[in-house]
Each structure stands twice: as C-alpha cells, then as structure tokens.
C-alpha cells in the first residue's frame, strides 16, 4: 500500500512575519523546477502570528506546493480561555494540519495525553488533520520501556477516534533525546519503533487504518540523513525542526523524499 510521504517543517518559536515570508519565498524557489506530482506533501508550521503573511504568500501562485500547519491549538471553539486559539480560528489561514503533543509542549506547557486526545478529536471534527507527536526520553529508552511508553501515548491519543479518522491522521515519532541534539536515531531503530506504532494502530483501529496512517520520524533530520530514513519500509516522512529554518536545507530534505513520493 503506498502512502504519500510528508515532509513537515516545524519552525517552533522562530521567525516573525517578514522572516517567515522570506523563508517561504526561498522554499518556493527551491522547489520551483520540480513537478508537484513528484514531490512529497510539503508542510510548514510557522508561529501563529506569521500564519496570515505566510498564507498570503502561498496564495500568490495558482497552485501551492506547500501546505500549512499550526504548532498547537485549543480544543474548545471559543470562550473564556485567555491566550488560546481555536481550530475554527486557525481555519482562517487555509490550515491543513495541526501539530499536537510535541514533546516541548508536553514538557514545558503541561500538555497531557488527555488534552492531546481532546485536541485530536476537535481537529478531526473541524475537518483538519492532527500530526500527533510521541516519543521517549533517554531515561525511558535506557530503562527499556520505549515501546510500552509510546504505545500508551498512541492508545490515549486515539481514544474514541474512528478508524476512518485514524486512517487520515498523521503520527510523528520523535525520540526526545534526538530533538535538537544533532543525534539522529538510527534509521533501522526508528523504523522498528514506527512499525510497532503501526501494529498498535492495527490492534486499536484495524488493518486499513494501520496501512493508511502516515507515520513520520522526527529528531535531528538533516539533508544527509533523509535518504536513508526514507528508504525504510515504514517511515512515511519527517518532522523537521532546525533544518527547516533554512530554505536550502529544507528543500534538500524535501528532494531527499522524492524517490518514495513517486512510487
Ligand atoms: P529537530 O526538531 O529537527 O531540530 O531535532 C524536530 C522537532 O522537534 O520536531
């Protein structure tokens, strides 16, 4: 079964509107000469305050090769939730995906598995798609509880979500010790964990959901690592942090996923 790969850039808390637009322009020109059908799905997740400008820039061409994601959302539609942004509000900017459960949000902002599940359900109910992040700490890996921890995160995130909605969703496996450290997870090991995630999805939601859901790897992905990662059976793309902040390195990563995109 062929799954369309995704290369998603998580810009984290970087780039004001002007810098975001410059980065998008650079990326657009880096991908200019490539027929869209040969590309993986290309996604960028700017900060909230840059979404308007980035969307305007993307709308300048008749057909954009780049889709938009938000880095977070709240699950209520509106109300007294100071500082939060609802999914309906994000839809103003032509959003396709919303990243939820990133380890930085879990670690610094107290995002729990229950909140991630509520967000996933609200995103799907609003017609958008969640990119659900999961991953283990170095300590958990050393204790040998990586698989148990991750399958637990996935089980909770997908609670009450239908097989059809699961099939459309995206998971990003991001070992925390590999995020922003330059220490990429060995491609075979990343593939092993991703296969285990797919098996978990199969047990919970059935074969079709497991075969359709796209599962990305994230954690120090670079132009030099992407081809080996994409060559693995179950890795359907990458969630890229640091290397997505430079147009040339992100475009190289996108191009590194082309072989799988065109099969
Ligand atoms: P990194 O970040 O590529 O800088 O390691 C990945 C992520 O946190 O999504």
Account of the 3D structure:
This protein is an alpha/beta fold. Helices cover 43% and strands 15% of the residues. It contains 13 helices and eight strands. Strands 1-2-3-4-5-6-7-8 form an eight-stranded parallel β-barrel, surrounded by five helices. Strand 1, helix 1 and strand 2 form a beta-alpha-beta unit. Helix 1 runs parallel beside helix 2, helix 1 packs across helix 12 and helix 7 crosses helix 9. The chain is globular. The model has no long low-confidence stretch (mean pLDDT 96). The protein binds 2-phosphoglycolic acid. The site of 2-phosphoglycolic acid (PGA) has 13 residues, from strand 8. 2-phosphoglycolic acid (PGA) binds next to strand 8.
Topology readout:
Elements: E1 6-10, H1 17-31, E2 41-45, H2 51-58, E3 66-70, H3 87-90, E4 95-100, H4 103-109, H5 113-125, E5 129-134, H6 138-142, H7 146-157, H8 163-168, E6 170-173, H9 187-205, H10 207-212, E7 214-218, H11 226-230, E8 237-240, H12 247-256, H13 258-261
Parallel strand pairs: 1-2, 1-8, 2-3, 3-4, 4-5, 5-6, 6-7, 7-8
Helix pairs in contact: 1-2, 1-12, 7-9
This protein binds 2-phosphoglycolic acid (PGA).
Salient structural properties:
alpha/beta; eight-stranded parallel barrel; 13 helices; 43% helix; binds 2-phosphoglycolic acid
Sheet with most strands: 8 strands, parallel, barrel
Major sheet strand order = 1-2-3-4-5-6-7-8
Number of strands: 8
Helix content: 40-55%
* Average of pLDDT: 96
Distance between termini?
10 Å
Helical segment tally? 13
Structural class: alpha/beta
Quaternary organisation of the protein chains: single chain
Instruction: Please write the string of helix (H) and strand (E) elements.
Output: EHEHEHEHHEHHHEHHEHEHH
Shape verdict: globular
Q: What ligands are attached or bound here?
A: 2-phosphoglycolic acid
- Using only CA atoms, what is the Rg? 17 Å
> Approximately what portion of the residues adopt beta-strand conformation?
15-25%
Task: Please mark out the parts with pLDDT under 50 across 5 or more consecutive residues, or reply none.
Answer: none
